[in-house]
Amino acid sequence: MKKIVLTGGGTAGHVTPNIALLPKLKEKGYDIYYIGSHNGIEKSLVQAQGIKYYGVESGKLRRYFDPKNFSDPFKVLKGISQARKLIKKINPDILFSKGGFVSVPVVLAAKSRKVPVIIHESDITPGLANKICIPNSVKVCCNFPETLSYLPPDKAVLTGSPIRSELFSGDREKALKFCGFEDDGKPVIMVIGGSSGSVIINNTLRGVLPELVKEYKVIHLCGKGKANHDYDDYKGYVQFEYISEELKDLFALTDIVISRAGANAICEFLALRKPNILIPLSANASRGDQILNADSFENQGFSKVIREENLSNLELLDTIKYVLNNKDKFIEKMANAQQKNSVDIIMDLILKYSK
């Protein structure tokens, strides 16, 4: 039986694409192992899938001054030593890395044990962890055509992001019942601010809610601790702080999505062919990767973008109307996207490069 080690962590975005590969890996007969950090978000997500999980030390790599910059390199070195022992013990045929700081010691350990490494880069420009790992890989998968210019030409493959198969099996009728909506033909808008929610998106949405519910139904994923029950009486509006199992059903009901521009989330919209309005995190609150992601999707005809600094009640209402009026054009562009069948493309690479 072939063996594969998956790695990646720090955020859910570094884990969920790995989880999306699990059904195909099992179908192909791989024995699957996961190496992550001792207490990162990846641990609970992976263990919930029944996958063998091992933790190693990982230090964060920073481009700014922090006292931990003096201690974290020693954590990385310790993590490499721990990962080498695990790689020797498991003796995998291949390693697939989704990135994040925990992936650095694991990738370096795999390379030292002559295990082929395939990396997936979510954003347009590689983050620091993947920049360190790329020279040690045989192939680098990516989500955006623009990313190809940042990668070694002999390693770069445009794949898109692996999408969880269950997202394609949503039930519209279940979603109507779950939300308490009547099936009256009104278009459905789903607003997503990320797991922690977005204050500016939440506030702007609530500011236009009286107008929106006249013409649309609104599903609002507002983030943990960010529900506002003053709006509970609006007919055609429902808010949830967090959604898990029901998300696939909500997608089946949704006509357009309003969201931040995290790479994995927008690749889900693309795979599901959901026209969308992207409001990326500002450069002040991030390294600017969401802005680049959003611009790429807009240039490819998949999305309409509102810059956070330009977000207003009127701008949001006008953009919703524009996207709904041009919904078919967005769907046609997404249907013809290069980034299709990502799980199959990545699986072909895994099969090809396994020892």
UniProtKB/TrEMBL annotation:
Pathway: Cell wall biogenesis; peptidoglycan biosynthesis
Topology of this chain in the membrane: Peripheral membrane protein
Gene3D superfamilies listed in its UniProt record: Glycogen Phosphorylase B (3.40.50.2000)
InterPro entries the record matches: GlcNAc_MurG, Glyco_trans_28_C, GlycoTrans_28_N
EC class of the enzyme, as a word: transferase
Compartments, record wording: Cell membrane
UniProt-listed GO biological process terms: carbohydrate metabolic process; cell division; cell wall organization; peptidoglycan biosynthetic process; regulation of cell shape
A molecular function (GO) term: undecaprenyldiphospho-muramoylpentapeptide beta-N-acetylglucosaminyltransferase activity
Major localization listed first in the record, in broad terms: membrane
EC number(s) from the headed UniProt entry: 2.4.1.227
Domain Glycosyl transferase family 28 C-terminal: 188-346
CDD domains per UniProt: GT28_MurG
Gene Ontology CC terms, in alphabetical order: plasma membrane
Pfam families: Glyco_tran_28_C, Glyco_transf_28
Role: Cell wall formation. Catalyzes the transfer of a GlcNAc subunit on undecaprenyl-pyrophosphoryl-MurNAc-pentapeptide (lipid intermediate I) to form undecaprenyl-pyrophosphoryl-MurNAc-(pentapeptide)GlcNAc (lipid intermediate II).
Annotated family: Belongs to the glycosyltransferase 28 family. MurG subfamily.
Name recorded for this polypeptide: UDP-N-acetylglucosamine--N-acetylmuramyl-(pentapeptide) pyrophosphoryl-undecaprenol N-acetylglucosamine transferase
Organism: Acetitomaculum ruminis DSM 5522
Lineage: Bacteria, Bacillati, Bacillota, Clostridia, Lachnospirales
Gene: murG
